[in-house]
Amino acid sequence: MAAATQAASGNLDGMHATLGHTAEDLESAATRISELQGELSDALDSSDMDQVRTILLTSPAELGAFMAEPVSIERHAVFPVENNGSAMAPFYTTLAIWIGGVVLAALIKATPSARALQETGCTVTQAYLGRLALFCGTGIIQAAIICLGDVGYLGVQCAHPGLFLLAGCVASVVFISIIFALTSSFGDIGKAVAVVLMVVQVAGAGGTFPAQMLPPVFQTIYAWPPFVHAEGAMRAALFGIYNGDFWIQLAILAAYAVPAVALGLLLRRPTAHTVKRFEEALESTHVM
User: Which of 88, 97, 228, 271 has its CA 20 to 30 A from that of 121?
Assistant: First the structure.
């Protein structure tokens, strides 16, 4: 602890000295610009074009370089990102995992038939949790393929491969819990809602642009979509963990599964009859 404190103190002293030198350079640059402005203003007031040309053309290259970069800055990346593909990996990996959950909901029936319940003797709650476990198990396999493909096939920069795989699996379980709750409670309407949620999160999760560059409405909801925390955990696993941010983002992400499962269990029974009637009416149209 003492060594860490001493190192931190040394870093702060170094930063203080650097900022002091930068302030001196800025003051010198401001003084020089003021002098040039005064000389140029006097020459223009006296209509002395020779003096104007002398001021502007003394050293065009030097003047241009000074105006373009009055102060040089040294950049030291703490967690450098090798390329743009790696930088975009958290967003597209998260998106692929959500799409995998939507495809699962479209391919596998979320609710067992009444005949299956009678034959197995399962309650509605047991059937819900059992089918959810099937979905989550399949989703974990999907997430593992996606994450391992990112690292092994695409060559994405990854500082902590194991944590990246863990983040992908947790994200898959959470996303599928949400999608499964919507699908089992509202049927085809729930699948449509899952797609709408995906579109909203693609636009408002800050995966392609910083949150500060998003429209105001998306800045307002930025902290709420699970996409944000899945991307945050994956970004920390790929490029470096700072102050436990990986575990913080992962814990917030995992917390979304609790209300998703609870809502699915609560809404499944009261909505079952209405959803069944709606699906029968939809099937009678022969459109879907």
Answer: 271
| Nearest residue to 98 via CA among 180, 209, 206, 218 | 180
Pick from 195, 168, 202: which is nearest to 179 by CA? 195
| pTM of the model as a whole | 0.71
* pLDDT exceeds cutoff 70 at 53: no
DSSP three-state, residue 274 = helix
Domain boundaries, the chain: 2-68, 84-284
User: What DSSP string describes 166-234?
Assistant: HHHHHHHHHHHHHHHHHHHHHTHHHHHHHHHHHHHHHHHS-SSS-GGGS-HHHHHHTTSSHHHHHHHHH
Per-residue pLDDT band at 4 (split at 50, 70, 90): very low
State the average pLDDT for the chain.
Answer: 81
CB 146 within 8 A of CB 283: no
pLDDT digit string, tens, across residues 20-29: 777 777 787 7
Measure Cα distances from 61 to 64, 183, 274, 275 in Å.
Answer: 5, 66, 77, 74
Q: How far apart are CA 96 and CA 93, in angstroms?
A: 5
The pLDDT score that the predictor gives to residue 128 is 85
